[in-house]
Design a protein that fits this description.
- The protein is of the alpha+beta class and 220 residues long.
- The chain is built from seven helices and four strands; from the N terminus they run ααβαααβαβαβ.
- The protein has a four-stranded antiparallel sheet with strand order 1-2-4-3, with helices on both faces.
Amino acid sequence: MDVIDAVNRRMSVRAFKPDPVDGAVVRELLEAASRAPSGGNLQPWRVQAVAGEPLKALKATMLQRVASPDETEYAVYPPNLWEPLRSRRFQVGEDMYASLNIPREDKLARQQWFSTNGQGFGAPVQLFFSIDRRCGPPQWSDVGMFMQTFMLLAVERGLDTCPQEFWSHYNQVVDAHVGLPEGHMLFSGMALGYRDEAAPVNLWRSRRDPFEAWGELKGF
């Protein structure tokens, strides 16, 4: 598979098959992803992959806790989003719920769907990415590049992912079940498994603005 093919196939999968993923494969992909760029070679990421009984226990807790999030350590989105960011976020939500046939006025159904985040959308593996609280935005970008590299490598192996900053709202729950490294904050989770190709929520793609909206070429 060419890199461009992996880029084009990758998406935030929100319905997985229950098929297990070999732990040796998970480790292989994580070790390969560690070649991602890292300023000063700090390699600030810490990753914990959870499956089997420990993941079942976490998911059971989330069934009770999803309506009671922890205090977050960072804002996932800037407050009072401006244009065009606001419209982009609104549109992706509308497209997703349309694929699920959940109208805007059905608040209960939307809340029930939101709770599936805490179940990893049925994925058999959940990864948690954390970073030392003393690190700053440049190191956060390193973690993001590590995650992206992992996601593309997963696609090459026939796997799919869904990065979930959702879990930053449940950092204490994750810490209680997984045991985050001392002094680290939870940056993001990620569901990993095999895509359910027939699930309607996996049959649409988020929109991207044309190059002219965000890019320039000068001196070419």
